[in-house]
Structure formats: structure tokens, C-alpha cells
Design a protein that fits this description.
mainly alpha
């Protein structure tokens, strides 16, 4: 994980003439950059709304509760390795509501499946727009297989009867699993599941806007800024599936500048732009997440430990 990030960071810095970046930042169009920062922060309200929709058949979790958990999770993803924020946000929902931890995990998995389906649709559109390196193509197909398998497992849990599941596996599951299956049935047979699916599509597509705004603000010379923004969004989201260093450092820069090179932007400018885009995409979420963490009166070190302990307890009860 760290080795890949370090290699990508070295590659992004090599030949970037990073000493020029400050002058370029001073000449950026800050109206566009401000729009990108605001859009980066606000777009995750869609994720919070989607999560509330998925959980609604089980419990009516407030939008504010989901929003706090999402932004604290985003903050944790930026400062902790292995996307620990996913675990933390699921744990926070169980702390602030009566949703079981197993159901919280399942709802997050449903989110990822929906994201993956929309991402694969966008990925195949990207293949028609640009000749992608083979590693991106292989990564996309592998992700597609993982999504199909995960969707089949979750779908089986949603629509199969408890007796059928016990018979299929040949033994009876513990009581917590009965609760999970019962809640998955509620989620799977609710119209809110379909609302959340289409919300996932909107959530993915609006992530184009901050990238486009930074391209315009940086005054980047690219012939097709919307297509470039779309392709970069897809490849950055595709790369985020891979466990990586805190803040996506290294891999983010590598993917961003490689995408720009595909669309005819010079390597040196693309590399410098990748650091500006990373700053706009990351620093606002760190600030907002940290502020919400402070307002919630929670210490990240304690929260991470409690979430890990809760996950371990959940495993030992299987």
C-alpha cells in the first residue's frame, strides 16, 4: 500500500518543476476554485441522504446524524490508512441510533454496490472516450466481477427467506444474523432502496463539477474539459477502491496526471495540477470533518479504538 503510494508520488514529483506551482496558484481564477471547494463539501450531503434512505425501513435516522457520521468518516479516511473512516462512520450510526452494527455495515456495502454499478457504467463510457492503459481496463473488469458477486450475496440476503438460508448453508445462524436478515428484508422490499440507487447515480455524477471547476480555475489548456473531468472522476473513483496511504497521497496524483496526459496536456503541467486538485479535494473535507468531530466532543484516537473493538466483538459472535 505505502510502497505503491510512494512510487506514484515519486513519479508525480519527477520532472514536475514543482517550484513553479506557487506562481500558477497565484494566477488561478479563485471564483472557480471557490466553487470547487464548496461543491466538494456539499456533494457529500447526497451521500448522507442516500444512507438515510437505505436505513429508513429499519429506522428513521435523521439527516443530521448521517451527515455527521459521513463527514467524520471522511476525515478519518484522510488521516488514517486503509479507509478506516468506513468502519468509523458505521460505528457512529450504531452509537447515535438503535441500528445494529451488522445492519450498518450491510447498508454501507449496499452503498458501495450501488456506487460500483454506476461507476462501471461510467467506466465503459470512458473506454469509448479515450484509449486507457491496460492496467485501468483490467482494474475496471476486476471491479465489475467483485460488484456482481457482492450484489448476488446481498440480494440473496434481502430476498431469501431465513429458513432457505439456513437450509442452503446447512446450519442455523446466531440471533444477530437473524436480525440482519430481517432488516435486509425490510431494506430490500422498500421503495427507498430504489430511491437510494438513483441517488447514487447523482452522487457519482456531481463529483465531476469540482474537477471541472479546478480545471477552469487553474486555466488548464484542454480541448474537452467536461470529458476530461468525467474521465478523471471515473479513474480516481476506480483507484479509490485500492487500499492506500492516508489522504490518497501518491496514487491520487498519479491517476490525475496520467488522465490529463491522455487528453494531451503536458506531463509537467499535469503533475503540478494533480497537487492543486488533491488540495481542493482533500483539505476542505479534513477541515469540515475535524470541526464536526470537535462539535461532537469525540477524540479520533478513542473513536478508532472503540470502532475496532466493536468490529472485533461482532466477529467473535459469529
Amino acid at each position: 500500500m505505502y510502497l505503491v503510494s510512494a512510487v506514484c508520488m515519486y513519479y508525480a514529483l519527477s520532472g514536475a518543476h514543482i517550484n513553479l506551482i506557487w506562481g500558477e496558484i497565484q494566477h488561478m481564477h479563485w471564483g472557480w476554485v471557490s466553487f470547487a471547494i464548496i461543491a466538494t463539501i456539499l456533494l457529500f450531503l447526497l451521500q448522507s441522504w442516500r444512507w438515510a434512505l437505505i436505513l429508513r425501513p429499519v429506522e428513521r435516522v435523521s439527516m443530521w446524524t448521517c451527515t455527521r457520521a459521513v463527514y467524520i468518516g471522511l476525515f478519518a479516511n484522510e488521516v488514517l490508512p486503509l479507509r478506516a473512516g468506513e468502519l468509523i462512520r458505521c460505528f457512529l450510526i450504531t452509537r447515535w441510533s438503535s441500528v445494529p452494527l451488522s445492519v450498518s455495515f450491510a447498508s454501507a456495502l449496499i452503498e458501495r454496490i450501488f456506487d460500483g454499478i454506476w461507476l462501471m457504467i461510467c467506466f465503459f463510457l470512458t473506454l469509448r472516450m479515450a484509449a486507457l492503459p491496460h492496467i485501468f481496463e483490467r482494474g475496471g473488469y476486476i471491479l465489475g466481477i467483485i460488484i456482481v458477486v457482492a450484489a448476488l450475496i446481498i440480494g440473496f440476503g434481502m430476498y431469501a427467506k431465513q429458513q432457505s438460508i439456513d437450509k442452503f448453508f446447512g446450519f442455523a445462524f446466531p440471533s444477530w444474523f437473524d436480525t440482519l436478515v430481517a432488516d435486509l428484508h425490510l431494506i430490500g422490499h422498500s421503495r427507498y432502496l430504489y430511491y437510494s440507487f438513483f441517488t447514487s447515480g447523482a452522487f457519482l455524477l456531481v463529483q465531476i463539477f469540482p474537477i471541472y471547476a479546478v480545471i477552469r480555475g487553474y486555466r488548464l489548456d484542454t480541448e474537452f474539459p467536461w470529458i476530461t473531468s468525467f474521465a478523471m472522476m471515473v479513474l480516481l473513483r476506480l483507484s479509490s477502491v485500492v487500499p492506500q496511504a492516508p489522504g490518497n497521497l501518491g496514487l491520487f496524483q498519479g491517476i490525475a496526471f496520467r488522465t490529463l496526459v491522455l487528453f494531451g496536456v503536458s506531463a509537467a503541467i499535469s503533475k503540478r495540477f494533480s497537487f492543486v486538485l488533491w488540495g481542493v479535494a482533500t483539505i476542505p473535507l479534513i477541515v469540515v470533518g475535524f470541526l464536526i468531530l470537535l462539535l461532537s466532543g469525540i477524540k479520533m484516537s478513542h473513536l478508532h479504538r472503540e470502532a475496532m473493538n466493536a468490529a472485533e466483538v461482532s466477529k467473535t459472535t459469529t
